[in-house]
Design goal:
The structure holds two protein chains of two kinds.
Chain A: H1 31-45, H2 51-59, H3 63-68, H4 71-85, H5 91-100
Helix pairs in contact in A: 1-4, 2-4
Chain B: H1 8-14, E1 19-20, E2 34-37, E3 56-66, H2 69-72, E4 81-89, H3 90-94, E5 103-109, E6 113-115
Classes of the chains: A mainly alpha, B alpha+beta.
């Protein structure tokens, strides 16, 4: 897919390892990221999707979202899209649940 | 392939593997062989980056037979392909301003590659 994820050779992204990086970045920066990882691993190990489905789902993210949302937010968008695509949730159920929880889809 | 909850911890620690061992056919390309990457632009998942399409490289290692990601992303688990480490010179990828001795090693599947004759280089 020729989407924004395929950024090899693009200028302007800066260094891969930021200046002054101390190597101590935690695996999870907050509890929701830990939960997102658990949601991902249980749905993929449960056979809901493959790692290729997951990558492809991330690649389908709108370019602006891909570039501006954090790593685990991208995971959420990818997994939630797959839940709808694979028929675990309907699009309406997903929207309703997001609104119930006070979020914006 | 699916896994039960009991293997979850091991999968997190070790990762999963789609290797077909033993492979069901011999490899199409051999170490040292010159190859040309295809110019493909699928609207679905591929591991062939844009900057590596239509480029000449050399097979440096035959990794073995694995699930072919481009097909697996379409739900097809039954068409494994050989995966190779292919070396591209930085000049092939980025032009004459790139350092002469530098190269990029990147994993490529059978469907990305075409053979090229040595004298065509």
């Amino acid at each position: 897919m020729n989407s924004v994820h395929d950024s090899g050779g693009a200028h302007g992204f800066g260094r891969i390892i930021p200046e002054g990086y101390d190597g101590k970045e935690p695996a999870f920066k907050s509890e929701w990221e830990r939960r997102m990882f658990a949601l991902f691993i249980t749905t993929i190990v449960g056979g809901m999707f493959t790692d290729e489905d997951f990558r492809q789902s991330r690649e389908k993210l709108e370019p602006v979202r891909y570039l501006t949302r954090s790593y685990y937010e991208q995971w959420w968008f990818a997994v939630s899209r797959l839940m709808v695509e694979k028929g675990i949730l309907s699009a309406e159920e997903y929207e309703r649940e997001i609104i119930r929880l006070g979020g914006a889809s | 392939m699916t896994y039960g909850p009991e293997t979850m911890r091991e999968l997190i620690m070790m990762g999963a593997n789609t290797k077909v061992d033993p492979p069901t056919r011999p490899a199409e390309f051999a170490v040292g062989q010159s190859v040309l990457t295809r110019n493909i632009n699928p609207s679905t998942h591929t591991r062939l980056p844009r900057y590596c399409r239509g480029k000449r490289g050399e097979i440096v290692r035959v990794h073995g037979m694995y699930a072919y990601p481009d097909r697996r992303a379409l739900g097809d688990e039954t068409t494994p392909e050989y995966c190779y480490s292919v070396r591209f010179s930085m000049r092939e990828l980025w032009g004459d301003d790139a350092p002469e001795r530098d190269g990029l090693f990147i994993d490529m599947w059978d469907s990305y590659l075409l053979p090229i004759a040595e004298d065509a280089r």
